[in-house]
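We emphasize that the prediction below concerns an isolated chain of 312 residues; any contacts that depend on oligomerization or on bound cofactors are therefore not represented. The input was used exactly as deposited, without trimming of termini.
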Amino acid sequence: MTKTDSFQTQAQALREQLIAWRRDFHAHPELGFQEHRSAGIIAGRLRELGYQVQTGVANTGVVGLLEGKQPGPVVMLRFDMDALPIDEENETDYRSQNAGVMHACGHDGHMAMGLGVATLMAQNREEMKGTLKLVFQPGEEGMNGAEVMVKEGVLDNPRPDVVLATHVWNDKPVGTIDINAGGVMAAAEKWTCTVVGQGGHGAMPHQTADPVVASAYVVTALQTIVSRNVSPLETAVVTVGTIHGGDAFNVIPSQVELSGTVRTYSPQVREKVLQRLREVIEGVAMVCGAQARLEITPLTPAVINDAEVTQV
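Result of the prediction step, given as a token string:
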């Protein structure tokens, strides 16, 4: 039996334990920076396996270190832990027991996978070359938990030579692993905008500066950013996700609120799209006699896979 065959056999032996871990995490979801139960289970298991464990990184983050018996690189693996503020509608014996909170993005599976890797590597420590650094991250869902962990020194002592991460994907058959070089996950921004006009009676629109009409033109004009300002060889998304304005059918409101997201891979394209987002929103609103107050919030940078590591 080859070493690869032996490793696969060990992994298969963990199948039921992996399922049990995942279902337990699924039944007890926790929101970002509140993953106390999950972190406790993870830290406890890592200690049992002989890892050096650090807790409380970015409040609820956990770091485990396992040094191999032979010298080699420091390889860091990252797994996210937080759930989403969603009511679960599934009818299973492991459905969420926390009202309004659900593991709807697969982080329950990620934590189980992390514990599985931790177990396998501990079983093969004698043959391991280098150091394994496992990072269980809180607050991935729009809370910049990774950034907080970095600021608190997660990339030091020891500094990793390679960082690896993965994400479950429902569209793929079980057992499929997709690995690609270059951009694989886009940078994300959230934008919110208030279009301010002058309200009035719906029967006398000439006495108003209608923010509803201005907002309608803004939504239409935003569609030109990707089609006319981004090269056909590049990728970008500009989405309007919400529009809220008015309380009565016969009254023109004084303001309308919009929000959406921007997704890009290239830093140059990102800069251009954000510039045009502001120019289009503020310019179109002004043409319609209104004013626009725009706020852009960076959420996460793009994931760009190293080509050499990807080949390995």
